[in-house]
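Think of the structure tokens as a kind of shorthand, similar to the way a musician reads notation: each symbol stands for something richer, in this case the local conformation of the backbone. In the example below we present two proteins back to back. Begin with the first one, reading the sequence and then the tokens, and try to describe in your own words what changes along the chain.
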Amino acid sequence: MTKRPVVAAAILDSLDHPTRLLCAARAYPEELAGRFELPGGKVEDGETPLEALGREIAEELRTTLSIGNRVPGPDDGWWPILQGRRMGVWLAQVRPGSPAPHLGTSHVELRWVPLDEVATLDWIGHDLPIARAAVSNARRHAAA
């Protein structure tokens, strides 16, 4: 049986002029608690990846996003992550008029991190190269 794909948002303070990335420290499981990830979750049956991303962000952070470019991964656009799963990642920003992201039960901390400092955090598994690629992609998109 194929494992459900995962989706995540690299939430920036601005898609046009990014300076900070929202980094989320996991609440569970115990072996991942306190380590950072990009917020998101599993794609459910009948959902497109972007529908799943919107649902997951609404559930986890109680906000809505404006979605930007996809951060292309090495596996047909997807990133390999823990437990043999694949993750699709998109640049995003909080949609104008939406509430600021709120800490929910999935995370113990939400931190807006300057782009130059993102790599200094304790990231989960394969998430550090994904976060680095998101920062690089955000900067490239902003410069275009």
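Once you have a description of the first chain, move to the second and do the same.
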Amino acid sequence: MYCPFCRNPDSRVVDSRMADDGSAIRRRRQCPECGRRFTTVETTSLSVMKRSGVGEPFSRSKVINGVRKACQGRPVSEDDLALLAQEVEENIRASGTAEIDAHEVGLVILGPLQKLDRVAYLRFASVYQAFDSLEDFETAISILRHEAEVEGATGADMKLGNTQT
């Protein structure tokens, strides 16, 4: 690591700490030549491959901007969107791949978005799952209704102390 002050090609790590919920390491370094200290942040790289074949670094802000359009007019806050983007990044990193297709990122977004807002989920899914007809929407809505009924029945059983479903 080059010293940003004197450009010495060597530095010594003085302190290391986790940053950004464990997705990065913050290191305090000291230059043995000039004695000045500086901070570096190390993260693992995660690339998104576009349809054109060009790779670019993963960006939470791009996830937020894409989902924001689907959430337009819905009761979803900026904090909700930031948490969703963090969950999406964590899910992608947990897969262990350093490179992911852009379309796959959209599919990973669907799970957390469904939990956040079902109408926004339908809007987003219609693009990423390439809905072609009203039947596609009807199928997706019936699946959401079934899941809501199962959640409702499970919640009622739990209130009654009944753990079997």
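Compare your description with these statements about the second chain. The mean pLDDT is 87.
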